[in-house]
Amino acid sequence: MKHVPVLLNSVLRALGDIDGAHIIDATFGAGGYSRAFLDAGAYVTAFDRDPNVVADAEQLSMTYPNKFKFILRTFSHISELPGTYDAIVFDLGISSMQIDIAERGFSFRFNGPLDMRMSESGVSAAELISNSSIDDLARILRDFGDVKKATLLARIIKDAHPQTTFELRDLIHNPRDIAPVFQALRIAVNNEMGELTDALNSVPKLLNIGGKCICVTFQSIEDRIVKNTFRAWTTAPGDPRLPTTVLPQFTPIKTETPTDPEISENSRARSAHMRGVIKSY
Ligand SMILES: C[S@@+](CC[C@H](N)C(=O)[O-])C[C@H]1O[C@@H](n2cnc3c(N)ncnc32)[C@H](O)[C@@H]1O
Fold first, then answer.
1. DSSP 8-state assignment for residue 243
2. I need a surface site. Which of 117, 176, 194, 220 has the fewest CB within 10 A?
3. Which value, in Å, is the radius of gyration of the alpha carbons in the chain?
């Protein structure tokens, strides 16, 4: 199924007039955000780590020659970009294309290899389970899935060394733990929280004055990182050499969640939050 962009209208509203602006779309996916930014007159530099999106990205660069550039890398590499930008947008997590293809191994609804690698390279979920100690695996389940009885479950999973999504799913006796276990492994396999933290650290120096950073989050762990980072930027002075009476370097943009109609049209939107900040000096 083609990915339906979540909270796109809220993101466009938060960005305002972007005619002629240069935007980093950190998570290209099916290109829904990038296309909307280009249609509104912006220049876009887009990142995605998934080689399966390259064909869509190439098509978009044919439609918008000289206005669209795609980089097949993880978004922590935004730190290597030259220059400064008017906006940096993150639409986090995985796309419908990734979750709906059984062979990618993200979903407990389809049987496939226990893979979960967005980049299709590196250590798969099955290998991560084999390589981790019971304690490490329990920590992953607890920290990234909030799974109760994580050590017991980690031992069961380690002993069974599952190779497919259904083999893993069938080891989890409490149905309420299934989605959290899959989420926790996916976050660990893709180092999602490390990527997000590193990328956010690069944002202040990459933004022009008046530039905006917008993040759409889908689960509480990534949402907490974004919320705490933005809170720090909007409450503390940006420059530690200045007296504490100076204003913080960023001001907040109102947080938005999807409307009921958006949720009924697109169930992926259910848990989404859009958070944003503006660089004020
Ligand atoms: C929710 S989808 C984005 C959908 C996109 N906004 C659209 O409208 O089609 C998230 C995308 O981000 C990519 N992604 C997730 N983490 C990434 C990272 N650390 N670096 C680069 N791409 C990442 C995934 O591969 C996926 O394609």
1. -
2. 176
3. 20
**Which residue lies with its CA nearest to atom 3 of ligand 1?**
29
In angstroms, the CA 275 to CA 129 distance is: 33
Give 174's DSSP letter: S
Q: Does ligand 1 have an atom closer than 6 angstroms to the CB of 86?
A: no
Q: Whose CA is nearest to atom 24 of ligand 1?
A: 94
Measured CA distances, 11 to 76, 250, 253, 254 (Å): 21, 18, 11, 11
- Give me the average pLDDT of each 10-residue run along the chain (281 residues): 91 98 98 98 98 98 97 98 98 95 97 98 98 98 96 98 98 96 98 98 96 97 97 80 71 96 93 97 88
**Backbone φ and ψ of 120, nearest 5°:** 55, 30
Any ligand 1 atom below 6 A from CB of 33: yes
Q: What's the pLDDT score for residue 3?
A: 87
- The response to whether residue 95 sits with its C-beta less than 6 Å from ligand 1 reads yes
Q: Whose CA is nearest to atom 20 of ligand 1?
A: 74
Name all domains of the chain by residue range, CATH numbers in brackets: 8-97+193-279 (3.40.50.150), 120-189 (1.10.150.170)
